[in-house]
Every structure is written in structure tokens, then in C-alpha cells.
Design brief:
Blueprint (H helix, E strand, L loop, with lengths): L1 H17 L5 E2 L2 E2 L4 E11 L2 E13 L2 E10 L1 E3 L2 E2 L2 E9 L5 E10 L2 E10 L2 E8 L2 E8 L5 E2 L3 H8 L6 E8 L4 E17 L2 E12 L2 E8 L4 E6 L3 E6 L1 H4 L6 E2 H7 L16 E9 L11 E8 L5 E8 L29 H7 L2
Parallel strand pairs: 6-20, 13-14
Antiparallel strand pairs: 1-2, 3-4, 3-19, 4-5, 5-8, 6-7, 8-9, 9-10, 10-11, 11-12, 14-15, 15-16, 16-17, 17-18, 18-19, 21-23, 22-23
Amino acid sequence: MKIFAQIIFILWAFCGSVAAQSLFQGGALLQGSGEQEDWMGTYFQGKKMGFTRVQTRWTPEGIEVDSTVFFQIRSKSIDQSTTINQKTRLGPDFKLRGFSLLQEITGHRQQVEGRVEGNRLIYRIKSRGFDKEKSIEFPPGTLSSSTFLLNLLADGLKVGQKGTLSLFLEPFQMLVDLEYEVLRKENLEYEGKPVETFAIKQKFSGIETTLWIAGDGSVIKETTNQGFESFKESAEVAQKLDEPLTVSSIITMSLVKPDQPINRSERVREIIFHLQPLRSPDLIPEDQRQKILQTEQLPNGFYRATLQVKTELEQSFSSGLGKPDSKYLEDSAQVQSRHPMIRALARE
């Protein structure tokens, strides 16, 4: 399911941001050895659904980052919580040496281990009944998605700075391009004190995020164009989660809403919207209430979508038929069988 895969993309991007927090003080790279643990809580439209935790250790020989991403979603009676744990090893030059990743989705586990040899990344995927080694081209300058912000901070930040980074998304074993731009300096409040930050916009795979990073490298806040937000928090606060969101509620909160009243809305059963500009044709979720009829790419690289929205009719049941059994009306976990991470668990 697209929305489920997007959540993993977004939270993994948050994890990469948190990893930058430990190595910098006053804008300079720390010398010697040390370690630090950092946490961020993640929210969807104001409701807490997960957290990221990063423990960073550094020595003159290199950097080791232990990352954890957790978010909880359920499909009525089925727990679809996802946990991704990764250990990333970097050299003192911030270049990727290797990684080990363990991800668990609805009880299914998959392990991915990778190492860089020359200009190739060799990685091994293991799950129940599956064990295979693969390799891909890994050109110079390609970065790990879990630690890429370290590279930006090591080179220094300034307003107006922009560029494109090639990232390897470890949970998906794929390369993506990330565009970034340092927009401005901005003061935020953290624990009752003002903090001067850089606001940085990032774009990749149709997802747009903005993060606010302090001079010491700590990420104070991050938001997305999908309604997700992440805030720097203590370990105790970060792990206090709300009731799990359901897949259907996430889609409901993501439905297209008109910015002005619809005349005689009680009589409207169907309406067509034309939406533009969109950065990706996959940004709009679909279910029985809204359906994308057509997408087309515009000359400027953006997209225009034609969206059909239908009113859900109230269901009435005669006494002769009785009330339908609720177990047949629950959200089905099987509708998510096409998203990339579920496929990764069952391929070959």
C-alpha cells in the first residue's frame, strides 16, 4: 500500500536526521572518542505514532551509528507495527564502510548486511527460507540514507546552499536522489530556550521534508508535506505513544478536502477535482471514497491529477437480513501486500 511505504520512507529520513546530532559542537567536529544517544518523537497530524532513537559512537578510526525506527499501526485486530534496527559504520572521512539492518513488519523479519568494496556495494538478504547475496554499483559520493546529514554538516552549512545527493535506502535496497536547499536561519524554542537553527528543505521520491537543525548538529524539528512531524524529545517522552493508528484512519486524515464550502453539499454524491502542481503522482491516497482517474506530467516536471470523490452512502439493513458480522468488515492486512517492504519479505 502506497501510504504504508511512504511512512517507512519518511520515518527512515527522520532517522538519518537524528544521526547528525552527536558529532558536532559549536559547528565543529568533535575530536577524540565519545558517544551520545538522541531521540525524536514522530506524529501524524498531531497524533503520536512512533519514535526514532540513534546512538552514535566515534573514535579517530571511524564512526558507528546504531539507529532504531519504530511506528505502530494496526488494521483493526491485526498489529502492523514496524521496527527497523540498523548499525552503520563510517570511516573517519564519513564514507560508508558497511551496515547491518534488521527489520520486522507484522512479525516477519528480514536481515540485510552490506559492505562497500571499491565502487560496489555487496549486500546479503536473509529471511525465513531466503538467503541471497547481491551487489550494485556504488559510485563515489553515494551516501547511506541513515547518516547522510553527517556529511552535510561535516562540510558546513550556509543559507542558499543547495545540491543533490545520491542515497542508498537500506530498508528497500535501492538508490534515490535527494535534493536539498538551506532556506534560512530561524529561531525555535526548545525546552523553554531560544535556539538558532538552519531550515533545510529536502525532496526525494515525491516526499518533501523540512528540518530545523541547530549549530551543534541537533535536529530540533522536522515536518513533511504528508502531515508527519518529528520533534527532539527525551527518551521517556519519545517512547510515550498514543493509541495505534489504523490504516483506514491514516487514509481518512489524508483525504483531499476542499478549501471552500460546497453548495448544497447534502445533495452531492460525486465531485471531480483537478489537483496541481504535485511533485509525484503517488502522493494522493486512494480508497473507496476517492480515486485517481488520470495523471499527467506538466512541462515544469510537476504533475496534474484528476480525482474523483464519492460520498459514502449510509447502509441500512432490514431486520430479515440481520446485522452483518463485524469481522467481515475489518481492514484487511492483505491490501498492503503490494507495498515494497512486504514484497521484499516474500520475493524469490
